[in-house]
């Protein structure tokens, strides 16, 4: 019975970032107790943590080796975002980084981030960006960063693109 549930779990398409991550946790029935074994994917490594000043430097001095990715939904991105960022909404598109280069470009209208580039994720408060970082690692990305303060921190610090906050009219 456990094998049947596990097979069903692994064949079910993922609909949320949390479910995609959970697919890599297996359960084993031992007597009346159940043990969980977490896989040793590269996702076990911690992401590089970015602070406001680090992201501000990326915005003011863009480079070809680092991409800033806003994982909020398109309406949130359209309302306001950190300049130079690309929108890859993780809640509605959790499979985005698993797509082929061609399918990704068809869906999002820009080139899929290469796996050798540093990808720095942010959202509104850091929850979705953390899930996106884990999914990126599962998809084979090795240079993964998180701006954990995300949009709320950016706005609080008056970063470029905000309409309020310190240093803004």
Provide key terms for this protein.
disordered C terminus; globular; 7 strands; Rhodanese-like protein; thiosulfate-cyanide sulfurtransferase activity; Rhodanese-like_dom_sf; Rhodanese-like_dom; alpha/beta; two-stranded antiparallel ribbon; disordered N terminus; 169 residues; Oxidized Rhodanese, domain 1
Total helical elements = 7
- Assembly level: single chain
**CATH architect. name of the largest domain:** 3-Layer(aba) Sandwich
Proportion of strand residues:
15-25%
Given as residue ranges, the uncertain stretches (5+ residues, pLDDT < 50) are 1-14, 20-43, 165-169
- Overall number of structural domains: 2
Q: How many angstroms does the end-to-end distance come to? A: 63 Å
CATH class division of the largest domain: Alpha Beta
CATH superfamily of the largest domain: Rhodanese-like domain
Report the strand count. Answer: 7
Q: Which class do the helix and strand fractions yield?
A: alpha/beta
Largest sheet: 5 strands, parallel
**What is the CATH T-level topology of the largest domain?**
Oxidized Rhodanese, domain 1
The helix-strand sequence is: HHEEEHEHEHEHEH
**Helicity level:** 25-40%
Radius of gyration: 18 Å
Strand order of the largest sheet: 3-7-6-4-5
Per the principal axes of the C-alpha atoms, what is the gross shape? Answer: globular
Average pLDDT rating: 80
């Amino acid at each position: 019975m456990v094998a049947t549930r596990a097979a069903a779990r692994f064949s079910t398409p993922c609909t949320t970032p949390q479910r995609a991550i959970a697919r890599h946790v297996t359960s084993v029935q031992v007597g009346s107790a159940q043990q969980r074994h977490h896989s040793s994917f590269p996702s076990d490594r911690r992401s590089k943590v970015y602070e406001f000043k680090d992201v501000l430097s990326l915005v003011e001095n863009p480079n070809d080796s680092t991409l800033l990715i806003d994982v909020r939904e398109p309406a949130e991105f359209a309302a306001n975002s950190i300049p130079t960022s690309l929108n890859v909404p993780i809640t509605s598109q959790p499979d985005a980084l698993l797509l082929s280069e061609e399918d990704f470009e068809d869906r999002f209208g820009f080139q899929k981030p290469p796996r050798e580039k540093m990808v720095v994720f942010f959202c509104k408060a850091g929850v979705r960006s953390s899930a996106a970082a884990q999914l990126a690692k599962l998809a084979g990305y090795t240079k993964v960063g998180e701006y954990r303060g995300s949009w709320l921190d950016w706005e609080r610090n008056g970063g470029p693109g905000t309409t309020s906050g310190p240093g803004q009219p």
